[in-house]
Amino acid sequence: MSSRVFAYCRCSKAEQNTENQVLEILNAGFSLEPHRVIQETVSGSVAALQRKGFAKLMDKLEPGDVVVCTKLDRLGRNAMDVRSTVEAFTAMKVRVICLALGQADLTSAAGKMTMGVIAAVAEFERDLLIERTSAGLTRAKSEGKTLGRKPSLSADQKAEILKQRKADVSLGVLAKHYGVSRSAIQRVEAAFN
Which residue in 3, 12, 134, 170 is the catalytic one? Predict the structure, then answer.
């Protein structure tokens, strides 16, 4: 029994289409039945496993099937997403062919080596993101910016709440007046006791 071949074709914008991707896969020698061509328009920023068309593809797949895509970025939003997507296919015993990588089967030994490189790039991307975030937070702090959520109550409001609580105004009344929860009023009291 020969493997069923599925094509996954994605474009990011409504004014684009996936026809060139389908033609590229056909020209590479793959035989495609129309019901096995999954085409969707969805931003690359959406993780593969969260895309409707991709989920539809995953539902159709059986062990031994082959998924063909033109480029790695069709499969995932970044190296980490591509890696987890290929791992999901591997767990299903589905081969993944990427035309841009010389028709490499990403689930083969050579493909696993390629995925190892992708994993290293994914880890590098993650580390860079952590470094940039940390540097940004440090810079913001050094510039005197307040981090986190904007306080729901000003210093003047907190002082007024303390006065009213000493005058036995209830938590519920104060919470309603200031548009906050009762626990927010309690936190104001706790901070000054």
Answer: 12
Residue 58's closest CA among 30, 38, 84, 42? 38
Given 67, 100, 119, which residue is the final one in a domain?
119
Give the domain range for residue 164. 155-191
Domain count, the chain: 2
> Which of 69, 99, 119 finishes a domain?
119
pLDDT per residue over 93-135, tens digit each? Answer: 999 999 988 888 888 888 888 877 877 776 787 788 889 888 8
- Residue 170 known to be catalytic: no
